[in-house]
Design a protein that fits this description.
The complex is a heterodimer of chains A (281) and B (129).
Chain A lengths: L1 E6 L20 E5 L5 E4 L5 H5 L8 E5 L5 H4 L14 E6 L7 H6 L17 E6 L5 E3 L2 E7 L7 E6 L5 E5 L30 E5 L18 H11 L3 E5 L7 H15 L4 E2 L7 E3 L2
Helix pairs in contact in A: 4-5
Chain B lengths: L6 H11 L4 E6 L4 E4 L4 H4 L3 H4 L4 H7 E4 L12 H8 L3 E9 L5 E11 L5 E10 L1
Antiparallel strand pairs in B: 1-2, 1-6, 3-4, 4-5, 5-6
Classes of the chains: A alpha/beta (281), B alpha+beta (129).
Chain lengths: 281, 129
């Protein structure tokens, strides 16, 4: 399968010359299978450009939302396939205790925040509230599980027809709670089994170790935590992702190199930059 | 591949790890999947040594009686009530583990129910009185 990063920024779109290389668009990743299946992970502002790559031969698109914080859904109204009559668009995401996925999405996709309501979209739209069982979607098997982040939030584990695995945990704080991390086995670590032996792990890396103590409980990881987490789950290739809006390209170059050099991971690390494509074969 | 614990149990364990109150954490099947340090004297053992304890093994070593010291059947114990009836319960009980001296507790068992109404287990507090 082929994985392309269309938005790597966390929290807030951050365009500008200082962020041009890592990218200013918020979370969006496209996964394309060998048989033409298309999964779109999150609908941050990066989804607008991603949509242009979905040609008219595609009959079905699945958008997998990890959660409904604004940086993960802001681009949804600008996702071109929603406006194609006859195209099957499936949106997957978590419900909350009191509200279903549709009601939660409509809080954004309705006036006055957005001029077009969900019910007015010309595509054939189907909403799915994600559970915790693996489901087949096109040529993929997709497993979801609740993970540690404020509000209903899931991570996804996507397995292709060849058994290759991509795990997507863009907003994730597995280090919340224990005095030392990691101190528990995978099954007792948020996201641990979702990411087990993943060929590619796309993971939150919002903070430096100096910033993290003042952001405990905000639902994000430090560079050191994501490197530890990737070791725990024995991923083959880590992509740090969901960069803090306050980190420029120059900052990220320095901070990530320092963290990687200090940790010495046994796996490959490629800091996520907008436009990067990974082929997993 | 080990079965992932639900995030609700993971967070409950983290909470219990940082509490001075004795807490036992049971999964949906009634297995004791974690107990914190303050709960170790109740069971006369350490979690690091036992790890998870299957429900049947637990029933063999733990005796529970009501306030009048009448033995409670497994179905009437607070943890089992919280699990089977999916409701919180608080009760004064006497407990003994492996024939140790009986100790009196205010026991509170709370079912852990997720956002989509799925049942994950029971968080069981023990306050010695």
């Amino acid at each position: 399968m082929q994985v392309t990063l269309w938005g790597t920024r966390g929290s807030l779109a951050t365009p500008g010359p200082d962020t041009a290389r890592y990218g200013g668009n918020t979370s969006c990743v496209a996964v394309r299978g060998r048989e033409g299946g298309v999964l779109v992970l999150d609908a941050g502002t990066g989804i607008r450009r991603m949509a242009a790559t979905i040609d008219t031969s595609v009959r079905r698109v699945d958008v997998l939302l990890t959660h409904l914080h604004m940086d993960h859904i802001q681009g949804l109204g600008f996702f071109g396939p929603l406006y194609r009559p006859g195209l099957d668009v499936h949106i997957w995401g978590p419900a909350s205790v009191q509200m279903g996925l549709q009601a939660r999405l409509m809080r954004y996709l309705s006036p006055p925040l957005f001029p077009v309501a969900l019910s007015e979209l010309p595509c054939r739209l189907t909403l799915h509230e994600v559970g915790e069982t693996e489901v087949p979607i096109e040529e993929f098997r997709v497993a979801a599980a609740r993970v540690c982040h404020p509000g209903p939030t899931v991570g996804y584990r996507i397995t292709d027809s060849m058994g290759k695995v991509v795990t997507y945990l863009p907003d994730h704080e597995p280090a919340l709670g224990p005095s030392a991390f990691p101190s528990l086995p995978r099954e007792w670590t948020s996201g641990g089994v979702l990411a087990e032996d993943a060929d590619l792990l796309i993971h939150d890396s919002q903070y430096t170790s100096q910033q993290y103590p003042s952001h405990v409980g905000w639902g994000h990881s430090s560079f050191a935590h994501v490197l530890e987490f990737a070791s725990l789950v024995e991923t083959k290739h880590l992509v740090p992702f969901h960069h803090d809006p306050g980190h420029s390209d120059v900052d990220l170059d320095r901070l990530l190199v320092e963290a990687i050099d200090a940790y010495g991971p046994a796996y490959r690390v490629t800091p996520g930059q907008e436009g990067m494509t990974f082929r997993i074969e | 591949m080990p079965l992932a614990k639900p995030i609700q149990l993971i967070l409950a364990r983290q909470l219990a790890s940082g509490m001075a109150t004795a807490i036992m954490l049971f999964d949906a099947q009634g297995n004791l999947v974690f107990y914190n340090e303050p709960a170790e004297p109740i069971l006369n053992t350490r979690f690091d040594e036992t790890g998870e304890i299957k429900v049947d093994d637990l029933l063999r070593v733990v005796s529970v009686a009501d306030e009048n010291r009448e033995l409670l059947s497994p179905e009437d114990r607070p943890g089992r009530v919280a699990r089977l009836e999916r409701r919180p319960i608080t009760q004064t009980i006497w407990m003994s583990c492996n024939d140790s001296a009986w100790r009196r507790f205010q026991a509170t068992a709370v079912p852990i129910i997720g956002e989509q109404a799925e049942f994950h287990g029971v968080m069981h507090f023990f306050w010695e009185i």
